Amino acid sequence: MLSDQRLLACAEYVSGRGIACDVGTDHAYLAAYLVKSGKCGLVIASDVKDGPLLSARTTIEKYGVSDRVMLIKSNGLDDIAPDNVSDVIIAGMGAELICSIIERADWLKNGVNLILQPMTRAPFLRKWLCQNGYEIDSETAVKDSRFFYAIIKAHYTGICRTPDAVFENIGKMDLSDDISREYAKKQAQRLLKAGKGMLAASGGQTNAAIETAEKIKKLLEG
Ligand SMILES: C[S@@+](CC[C@H](N)C(=O)[O-])C[C@H]1O[C@@H](n2cnc3c(N)ncnc32)[C@H](O)[C@@H]1O
After folding, report:
1. Domain 5-163: CATH superfamily, name plus number
2. Residue 115 pLDDT more than 80?
3. What is the pTM of this model?
4. All structural domains of the chain with their residue ranges
5. Residues 59-81: pLDDT tens digits?
6. Candidates 14, 21, 48: which one to mutate for ligand 1, based on the most atoms within 8 Å of Cβ?
7. Where is 212: in which H helix or E strand?
8. Which CA distances in Å does 23 have to 12, 145, 180?
9. Mean pLDDT value across the chain
10. Worst-scoring range by mean pLDDT, 14-28, 121-135, 142-156, 186-200?
11. Ligand 1 centroid to residue 93 C-alpha, Å
12. Distances from the Cα of 203 to the Cαs of 6, 69, 113, 135, 199, in angstroms?
């Protein structure tokens, strides 16, 4: 019933220990899949807009899971009751928005498993998580036509740190996995291109982006 590799990879990281909350559910495909597959007994599917919630209703009725998927209108997690929520999925949004949603929900610090899939600026999200006491447990990359997506599993530890540039760019990607390797390669290429541009503009000084790209390439070789 769910063919989207990106959402399937998110589902893979859901613990199923309690209620899962899919923030920005839109069509509720993930929410419906989580109950239909037996991974979760109950899912909260929330969205800030009425249109997506209408489309979510159509999906959960189609799959006969209206009794196990609660639809809630909420800006981020602002109107979600934290009771028994074990997993929070925030997928398909920009990194800055994901960070602001997490920042406003202090209860996420109580052992909630976070599954995050930024559409943009994954390095920004990784850095923010590390600097704000969230530890990245693992990551996986998904390729959809020519786009790569990072799916990040994290939880709060309270230990704040500033990650190095390599971690910012490839996080905890498992480099023994082909798609994660491709993801890392792509990040190195992007950094190299950006670095070369900056190098040309700055008149030839050494450049941090190029150094990071070289370090990622070395990791891939080793
Ligand atoms: C691109 S869709 C992603 C849908 C689904 N999560 C996925 O990954 O396929 C983004 C959804 O997030 C919702 N959204 C945007 N900002 C939000 C916020 N602050 N709180 C809750 N939902 C939000 C939008 O209304 C939209 O339905």
Report:
1. Vaccinia Virus protein VP39 (3.40.50.150)
2. yes
3. 0.97
4. 5-163, 179-221
5. 999 999 999 999 999 999 999 99
6. 48
7. helix 208-221
8. 17, 25, 25
9. 96
10. 186-200
11. 6
12. 41, 58, 46, 38, 6
